[in-house]
Each structure stands twice: as structure tokens, then as C-alpha cells.
Design goal:
There is one protein chain. The chain has 218 residues and is mainly beta. It has one domain. The protein is built from one helix and 13 strands, in the order H-E-E-E-E-E-E-E-E-E-E-E-E-E. Keywords: Signal.
Length: 218
């Protein structure tokens, strides 16, 4: 299905080969409006075994956009999130989450920049039955200087649907928090373009790679 989509919807762009992308990463998430639902933020308690603040890091994300000659790679990130254990429970918002960039230099002329969008809300959940990390409302990316999409000079925002990240190596029995475990996207997922609650009707690309490691309880 995804392959057929890319064959049917090719976007012509006039651009030279895009250099390796530089990430300026900050915070995460969002999704097209059909996946957005009203939710109540849970209060974290030190006495609660179902919520733990954990440190995470990862090599970044890989994005394939229609019309781009090469995949776009973000830089590495690191930060802290509040992780909920029980399936169906929502983690705290990550308004105070700060993801550090990989220290790459600023953009050179003509480069495309991709970052996890700042000042967004996200829910991180850990399902002990499947040993999976769930990003309930998906991820939101900000793309600058992407030829062929968006309005010239304005950033483009890309959304995924809800994501389920699977462990690269299962642990028996499962533990919470899953310290030292790495979780990765098992298959590519579609990306939509959108901003301010308005999204495109057709996917504009795919998130082909995303992984994070829970390094330790924060």
C-alpha cells in the first residue's frame, strides 16, 4: 500500500542534492486532528509506582519526503520524560522537556533542517505486557527549507499518527522503568503535512527510522 502510494503521488521538485540535515532538537509531539482527543494530564507522585521520570537519548529520526532525493536525518537527542506504566494511562506533558542538539554547526546555505517541534505535548506510555513504548499522540517535526512543499521561507510541520516502539531486545521478566532498554520503530509510518490543526489529505512522506533508549531513572 505504501509503495503504491509513492508511485501514484510523485512530487516534482527543482533542487540540487540536499546535504546531510542538521538537527536543532527540542521537544516532541502531535498528530493530525483525527487522532487528537481531549485528555487530562496525570499528576506525578513520588509514591506512585506507575509514573517515573526517566532519561532518554537516541540517534535521531530518519524521514523520507516525496520529491527529496535523499532521506533527511536529524541529529542525536537527549532529555527527560515522565513515563506512565499502565496501558491506557497518560503520561505527564513534557512542557519542561529539553532535548539537546548534537552540537552540529548552524545551517549552511541551501541545507534542509529537521527538528522535533518545540513546545508540544506528548504522552509516553510503557506497556509491560508487550514491553513496548507508546507515543500516544505521535510525533511532530518541523522542517525548514524543504523544496517543493510548504510556503517558501516558512517552516513545514509534519505529523505521524500514534507510534508503538518495540524493544530491540526483550527482557524477562519485564521491569519498570525499562532502564537500559532501546525501543525502535518496527516499520515505516506515514507523515502528514499540517499546521494549526489543518493537515493535508494525502501523506507527504514517511518516518522510516526512530529509536530511543531509556538510560536511567531521572
Amino acid at each position: 500500500m505504501i509503495a503504491d502510494f509513492f508511485q501514484r503521488h510523485r512530487i516534482a521538485v527543482a533542487a540540487a542534492a540536499v546535504p546531510l540535515v542538521v538537527l536543532t532538537a527540542t521537544a516532541v509531539t502531535a498528530a493530525p486532528p483525527e487522532w487528537l482527543t481531549a485528555h487530562t494530564v496525570q499528576e506525578q507522585s513520588d509514591a506512585s509506582p506507575n509514573f517515573r521520570r526517566v532519561a532518554i537519548d537516541g540517534p535521531g529520526a530518519t524521514i523520507d519526503l516525496l520529491g527529496q532525493p535523499e532521506p533527511l536525518d536529524t541529529g542525536a537527542f537527549a532529555g527527560e520524560v515522565d513515563l506512565a506504566r499502565q496501558p491506557g494511562e497518560e503520561a505527564m506533558t513534557t512542557a519542561n522537556l529539553v532535548l539537546a542538539s548534537s552540537g552540529e554547526p548552524g545551517l549552511a546555505f541551501g541545507q534542509v533542517a529537521v527538528s522535533l517541534r518545540a513546545e508540544s505535548l506528548t504522552d509516553y506510555q510503557y506497556n509491560p505486557d508487550e514491553q513496548s513504548l507508546v507515543v500516544e499522540h505521535g510525533l511532530e517535526f518541523e522542517v525548514e527549507r524543504a523544496p517543493g512543499i510548504g510556503v517558501r521561507g516558512e517552516p513545514v510541520f509534519l505529523y505521524t499518527g500514534p507510534l508503538r516502539l518495540l524493544p530491540t531486545e526483550a527482557v524477562d521478566p519485564p521491569v519498570f522503568p525499562p532502564e537500559g532498554q532501546t525501543f525502535a520503530l518496527p516499520a515505516p509510518v506515514l507523515l502528514w503535512e499540517g499546521a494549526d490543526g489543518v493537515t493535508s489529505s494525502e501523506p507527504i512522506g514517511m518516518l522510516t527510522g526512530f529509536a530511543l533508549t531509556v538510560t536511567h531513572p531521572a
